[in-house]
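so my prof wants the structure for this chain in the C-alpha coordinates format not the other one, which i didnt know existed until like an hour ago. anyway here's the sequence
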Amino acid sequence: MDANLLFICFLTLVIHVVGTLAYAVRIAGIRTRRVAISFSLFNILALVSRTSNSFQGPFLAKRIESRLLGIPLPSSMLADFRWLLAAATIATAVGALLTPTFQRLFSSAVRHFQTNRSMPRLIATAFSRRGLSSFVTNVRVPSRQNLKQLGSGAGVSVLVIGLNVIAMALWTLGVFASLYAGYLNPELRVTCSTLSSVINGVATILMFVFIDPQVSVMTDDVIEGRISDGRFRRAITSLLGARLAGTVLAQILLVPSSALIVRIAKAI
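here's what i got, hopefully its the right format
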Protein backbone atom coordinates (compact mmCIF):
# COMPACT_ATOMS: atom_id res chain seq x y z
CA MET A 1 0.00 0.00 0.00
CA ASP A 2 1.52 3.33 -1.08
CA ALA A 3 1.25 6.64 0.78
CA ASN A 4 -1.52 7.99 -1.46
CA LEU A 5 -3.78 4.99 -0.86
CA LEU A 6 -2.96 5.07 2.83
CA PHE A 7 -4.09 8.70 3.02
CA ILE A 8 -7.38 7.89 1.25
CA CYS A 9 -7.89 5.00 3.69
CA PHE A 10 -7.33 7.44 6.55
CA LEU A 11 -10.01 9.77 5.18
CA THR A 12 -12.35 6.79 4.90
CA LEU A 13 -11.62 5.90 8.53
CA VAL A 14 -12.50 9.40 9.69
CA ILE A 15 -15.76 9.45 7.71
CA HIS A 16 -17.01 6.14 9.07
CA VAL A 17 -15.83 6.56 12.67
CA VAL A 18 -17.68 9.87 12.94
CA GLY A 19 -20.76 8.42 11.26
CA THR A 20 -20.82 5.50 13.69
CA LEU A 21 -20.42 7.75 16.73
CA ALA A 22 -23.68 9.50 15.79
CA TYR A 23 -25.46 6.68 17.64
CA ALA A 24 -23.57 7.59 20.82
CA VAL A 25 -24.91 11.14 20.53
CA ARG A 26 -28.46 9.84 20.96
CA ILE A 27 -27.44 8.01 24.13
CA ALA A 28 -25.75 11.15 25.43
CA GLY A 29 -28.87 13.17 24.61
CA ILE A 30 -30.99 10.78 26.66
CA ARG A 31 -28.58 10.80 29.60
CA THR A 32 -28.44 14.59 29.71
CA ARG A 33 -32.02 15.20 28.49
CA ARG A 34 -30.49 17.67 26.03
CA VAL A 35 -31.03 16.05 22.63
CA ALA A 36 -30.99 19.30 20.62
CA ILE A 37 -27.73 20.52 22.18
CA SER A 38 -26.19 17.07 21.69
CA PHE A 39 -26.82 17.10 17.95
CA SER A 40 -25.74 20.73 17.68
CA LEU A 41 -22.37 19.94 19.25
CA PHE A 42 -22.02 16.80 17.16
CA ASN A 43 -22.27 18.92 14.02
CA ILE A 44 -18.72 20.09 14.76
CA LEU A 45 -17.47 16.53 14.35
CA ALA A 46 -19.75 16.13 11.35
CA LEU A 47 -17.87 19.01 9.71
CA VAL A 48 -14.64 17.02 10.07
CA SER A 49 -16.33 14.05 8.39
CA ARG A 50 -17.70 16.18 5.54
CA THR A 51 -14.31 17.78 4.99
CA SER A 52 -12.71 14.33 4.78
CA ASN A 53 -15.43 13.27 2.35
CA SER A 54 -14.78 16.28 0.12
CA PHE A 55 -11.08 15.37 -0.12
CA GLN A 56 -11.63 11.64 -0.58
CA GLY A 57 -13.35 11.87 -3.96
CA PRO A 58 -10.76 14.03 -5.78
CA PHE A 59 -7.80 12.02 -4.43
CA LEU A 60 -9.41 8.75 -5.48
CA ALA A 61 -10.42 10.14 -8.88
CA LYS A 62 -6.84 11.33 -9.47
CA ARG A 63 -5.57 7.84 -8.63
CA ILE A 64 -7.91 6.34 -11.24
CA GLU A 65 -6.89 8.94 -13.84
CA SER A 66 -3.22 8.16 -13.20
CA ARG A 67 -3.82 4.46 -13.76
CA LEU A 68 -5.74 5.13 -16.98
CA LEU A 69 -2.81 7.25 -18.19
CA GLY A 70 -0.53 4.25 -17.68
CA ILE A 71 1.28 5.51 -14.58
CA PRO A 72 2.34 2.39 -12.64
CA LEU A 73 0.91 1.89 -9.16
CA PRO A 74 1.75 -0.81 -6.58
CA SER A 75 -1.66 -2.53 -6.62
CA SER A 76 -4.60 -3.13 -8.93
CA MET A 77 -7.58 -0.79 -8.93
CA LEU A 78 -9.88 -3.48 -7.58
CA ALA A 79 -7.44 -4.14 -4.73
CA ASP A 80 -7.45 -0.41 -3.92
CA PHE A 81 -11.21 -0.39 -3.56
CA ARG A 82 -11.09 -3.55 -1.47
CA TRP A 83 -8.69 -1.80 0.91
CA LEU A 84 -10.95 1.24 1.12
CA LEU A 85 -14.01 -0.87 1.91
CA ALA A 86 -11.97 -2.76 4.50
CA ALA A 87 -11.06 0.59 6.04
CA ALA A 88 -14.78 1.42 6.24
CA THR A 89 -15.45 -1.85 8.06
CA ILE A 90 -12.56 -1.31 10.47
CA ALA A 91 -13.66 2.26 11.14
CA THR A 92 -17.22 1.15 11.88
CA ALA A 93 -15.94 -1.48 14.31
CA VAL A 94 -13.69 1.10 15.99
CA GLY A 95 -16.59 3.53 16.24
CA ALA A 96 -18.75 0.85 17.86
CA LEU A 97 -16.01 0.06 20.39
CA LEU A 98 -15.60 3.78 21.17
CA THR A 99 -19.34 4.33 21.67
CA PRO A 100 -19.39 3.76 25.48
CA THR A 101 -16.42 6.10 25.98
CA PHE A 102 -17.66 8.72 23.53
CA GLN A 103 -21.16 8.93 24.97
CA ARG A 104 -19.73 9.58 28.46
CA LEU A 105 -17.34 12.24 27.19
CA PHE A 106 -20.02 13.79 25.04
CA SER A 107 -22.45 13.88 27.96
CA SER A 108 -19.86 15.85 29.94
CA ALA A 109 -19.40 18.22 27.00
CA VAL A 110 -23.16 18.81 26.77
CA ARG A 111 -23.42 19.59 30.48
CA HIS A 112 -20.43 21.94 30.27
CA PHE A 113 -21.92 23.80 27.31
CA GLN A 114 -25.32 24.00 29.01
CA THR A 115 -23.65 25.74 31.97
CA ASN A 116 -21.15 28.00 30.20
CA ARG A 117 -22.76 28.38 26.74
CA SER A 118 -19.43 29.10 25.12
CA MET A 119 -17.95 26.95 22.38
CA PRO A 120 -14.40 28.38 22.68
CA ARG A 121 -14.46 27.68 26.43
CA LEU A 122 -15.67 24.13 25.80
CA ILE A 123 -12.85 23.49 23.31
CA ALA A 124 -10.28 25.00 25.69
CA THR A 125 -11.55 22.81 28.53
CA ALA A 126 -11.44 19.69 26.35
CA PHE A 127 -7.72 20.18 25.64
CA SER A 128 -6.81 21.30 29.15
CA ARG A 129 -5.17 19.04 31.73
CA ARG A 130 -8.55 18.57 33.38
CA GLY A 131 -10.17 17.63 30.09
CA LEU A 132 -7.48 15.10 29.22
CA SER A 133 -7.75 13.62 32.71
CA SER A 134 -11.51 13.29 32.21
CA PHE A 135 -10.88 11.42 28.97
CA VAL A 136 -8.76 8.83 30.77
CA THR A 137 -11.30 8.31 33.57
CA ASN A 138 -14.20 7.92 31.12
CA VAL A 139 -12.63 5.24 28.93
CA ARG A 140 -14.95 2.24 28.79
CA VAL A 141 -15.16 -0.95 26.78
CA PRO A 142 -18.49 -2.27 25.48
CA SER A 143 -20.31 -4.16 28.20
CA ARG A 144 -20.96 -7.87 27.77
CA GLN A 145 -24.32 -7.29 29.40
CA ASN A 146 -25.45 -5.15 26.46
CA LEU A 147 -24.61 -7.99 24.09
CA LYS A 148 -26.31 -10.58 26.28
CA GLN A 149 -29.45 -8.44 26.40
CA LEU A 150 -29.83 -8.93 22.64
CA GLY A 151 -31.12 -12.40 23.52
CA SER A 152 -34.31 -10.77 24.79
CA GLY A 153 -34.85 -8.84 21.55
CA ALA A 154 -33.09 -6.46 19.19
CA GLY A 155 -35.05 -3.42 20.39
CA VAL A 156 -36.11 -2.58 16.84
CA SER A 157 -37.90 -4.55 14.14
CA VAL A 158 -36.08 -6.89 11.81
CA LEU A 159 -37.27 -4.72 8.91
CA VAL A 160 -35.52 -1.63 10.31
CA ILE A 161 -32.32 -3.62 10.88
CA GLY A 162 -32.45 -5.05 7.35
CA LEU A 163 -33.07 -1.63 5.81
CA ASN A 164 -30.15 -0.25 7.81
CA VAL A 165 -27.86 -2.96 6.42
CA ILE A 166 -28.94 -2.18 2.84
CA ALA A 167 -28.75 1.60 3.31
CA MET A 168 -25.29 1.37 4.84
CA ALA A 169 -24.05 -0.89 2.04
CA LEU A 170 -25.34 1.51 -0.63
CA TRP A 171 -23.95 4.57 1.16
CA THR A 172 -20.55 2.90 1.62
CA LEU A 173 -20.07 1.80 -1.98
CA GLY A 174 -21.95 4.63 -3.74
CA VAL A 175 -18.89 6.67 -4.70
CA PHE A 176 -16.54 3.68 -4.87
CA ALA A 177 -18.74 1.63 -7.22
CA SER A 178 -19.36 4.56 -9.57
CA LEU A 179 -15.67 5.43 -9.76
CA TYR A 180 -14.69 1.81 -10.32
CA ALA A 181 -17.35 1.59 -13.04
CA GLY A 182 -15.71 4.61 -14.67
CA TYR A 183 -12.40 2.78 -14.54
CA LEU A 184 -13.96 -0.29 -16.18
CA ASN A 185 -15.42 1.88 -18.94
CA PRO A 186 -13.23 4.98 -19.30
CA GLU A 187 -15.26 6.35 -22.21
CA LEU A 188 -18.26 6.78 -19.90
CA ARG A 189 -16.42 7.52 -16.66
CA VAL A 190 -18.03 10.96 -16.21
CA THR A 191 -21.51 9.46 -16.61
CA CYS A 192 -20.62 6.62 -14.24
CA SER A 193 -19.25 8.97 -11.58
CA THR A 194 -22.38 11.13 -11.61
CA LEU A 195 -24.53 8.03 -10.99
CA SER A 196 -23.08 7.90 -7.46
CA SER A 197 -25.61 10.58 -6.50
CA VAL A 198 -28.43 8.20 -7.48
CA ILE A 199 -27.03 5.42 -5.27
CA ASN A 200 -26.43 7.78 -2.37
CA GLY A 201 -29.91 9.21 -2.91
CA VAL A 202 -31.49 5.78 -2.44
CA ALA A 203 -29.40 5.24 0.70
CA THR A 204 -30.43 8.66 2.02
CA ILE A 205 -34.11 7.92 1.43
CA LEU A 206 -33.81 4.63 3.32
CA MET A 207 -31.98 6.30 6.21
CA PHE A 208 -34.05 9.45 6.62
CA VAL A 209 -37.49 8.16 5.64
CA PHE A 210 -37.57 4.67 7.15
CA ILE A 211 -34.76 4.36 9.72
CA ASP A 212 -34.01 7.70 11.37
CA PRO A 213 -37.66 8.49 12.24
CA GLN A 214 -37.96 5.16 14.06
CA VAL A 215 -34.84 5.84 16.12
CA SER A 216 -35.96 9.43 16.80
CA VAL A 217 -39.34 8.23 18.08
CA MET A 218 -37.58 5.74 20.35
CA THR A 219 -35.34 8.53 21.64
CA ASP A 220 -38.36 10.62 22.61
CA ASP A 221 -40.09 7.58 24.10
CA VAL A 222 -37.12 6.89 26.39
CA ILE A 223 -37.04 10.50 27.58
CA GLU A 224 -40.79 10.39 28.26
CA GLY A 225 -40.50 7.02 30.03
CA ARG A 226 -42.58 5.03 27.54
CA ILE A 227 -39.82 2.51 26.85
CA SER A 228 -36.88 1.42 28.97
CA ASP A 229 -33.32 2.62 28.60
CA GLY A 230 -32.27 -1.02 28.21
CA ARG A 231 -34.45 -1.50 25.16
CA PHE A 232 -33.04 1.63 23.57
CA ARG A 233 -29.49 0.43 24.18
CA ARG A 234 -30.37 -2.92 22.60
CA ALA A 235 -31.70 -1.03 19.61
CA ILE A 236 -28.50 1.00 19.28
CA THR A 237 -26.38 -2.14 19.60
CA SER A 238 -28.45 -3.83 16.88
CA LEU A 239 -28.14 -0.82 14.57
CA LEU A 240 -24.38 -0.70 15.13
CA GLY A 241 -24.20 -4.35 14.14
CA ALA A 242 -26.34 -3.62 11.08
CA ARG A 243 -24.05 -0.76 10.12
CA LEU A 244 -21.02 -3.06 10.36
CA ALA A 245 -22.79 -5.74 8.32
CA GLY A 246 -23.59 -3.12 5.69
CA THR A 247 -19.92 -2.33 5.12
CA VAL A 248 -19.20 -6.05 4.71
CA LEU A 249 -22.08 -6.36 2.24
CA ALA A 250 -20.56 -3.47 0.29
CA GLN A 251 -17.49 -5.66 -0.36
CA ILE A 252 -19.71 -8.31 -1.91
CA LEU A 253 -21.70 -5.81 -4.00
CA LEU A 254 -18.74 -3.78 -5.31
CA VAL A 255 -18.10 -5.66 -8.56
CA PRO A 256 -21.71 -6.46 -9.53
CA SER A 257 -22.89 -2.94 -8.70
CA SER A 258 -20.04 -1.44 -10.75
CA ALA A 259 -21.00 -3.65 -13.70
CA LEU A 260 -24.64 -2.55 -13.31
CA ILE A 261 -23.60 1.12 -13.28
CA VAL A 262 -21.68 0.56 -16.53
CA ARG A 263 -24.78 -0.96 -18.13
CA ILE A 264 -26.95 1.92 -16.92
CA ALA A 265 -24.42 4.46 -18.23
CA LYS A 266 -24.54 2.80 -21.65
CA ALA A 267 -28.34 2.75 -21.63
CA ILE A 268 -28.80 6.41 -20.74
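also thought this was worth mentioning. The longest helix spans residues 77-116.
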